[in-house]
Amino acid sequence: MGIHCQATRPMTARTVQSALTCIDALSAEKQLRNSPRYTVMAMANTLESTRQAWVIRGQSRSHRTGTWPSWFARNTGEKPMLYLHSATSSAQLRALSSETEQRGILCNDIETRPSPSLPLWLASNLHCTPYDPASGEEAQAIVLAGLQALYVDGKPGFYYLALHDQNDGPRLHPQDRDDALKGMYWIRREPVGDLKVRLLGAGRAFEEVLHAAQLLETDWSVQAQLWSCPSYTRLAREAGAAERWNRLHPMAPRRSCHLRDCLTHDEAPVVAVTGYPQPIVDQLSAYVDARFVALGAGSVGASAPSRFWITVLALKALADDRRIDAGIVEAALHRYRLK
Questions:
Q1: Which DSSP category does 184 fall into?
Q2: 20 to 30 A from 26, CA-CA: which of 60, 198, 242, 277?
Q3: Same domain membership, residue 200 and residue 134
Q4: Of the spans 25-34, 105-114, 128-137, which averages the highest pLDDT?
């Protein structure tokens, strides 16, 4: 399901059957509203019970990467692999993905606060399809899609999920799953007023985006269209691929992309937020026609932007578009004690 073009891997009938058994077992589980971390841990337990997948827990001595060559030698034939890890640096994850031949579904517990280099490496690694789910429902959909793509369809590469323990993420309805896997889906109804912004949030940062939407409406009478974005990188890769194709085929009908399909029908400013460094969101800027504001760790402070900064910078985008007076931005800075 990645955007880069590589040949599919031939899957044996045994591998495909193992993956389908895993998908059936996971799909039969009742989905409760839980955090991404809790949800994936529960899915790992289910996969272990099927005996059709390799579930590797990072703290298990028998499955440390140093012992993997001999361990894999005893387990010939590929089976679905779910690896639960707590990598804090790109070097750790690079070593891990090398040992797995850049295959499998790698799930990283980000409560350990990984270094800024980790998401940047993931975004630049074309073998990786990285996701930052905001809810357990998003995490479940991504794991199921990874099993289908990697072990049934034979797509190359590996999936990466960043897991956190917040359990108040957005609901993912069945009709929105495909959009979520493409990178973004719509959470809140279309605003009815003339004064509006579009707020995009990923992973743990989604909660602050949700609170910012409430502040905009209650404090400043600005309505927000709300989007959850499980993968900014996937959105950017698809948009870049469409742009390259259009450049090389000037006589053919233009190709679109999911990002443009979601955002092209409106001129309201777009504010995209991540808990990772800002360059993760900067990837989208070339493909958004409206005023675009990228926010992440380092944008206004060392950590991810708060709901108050998101609110203020959404107001500033409206002021820059001359839709509100700049004095409102100044008032918001003072109201939230940011100045």
A1: -
A2: 60
A3: no
A4: 128-137
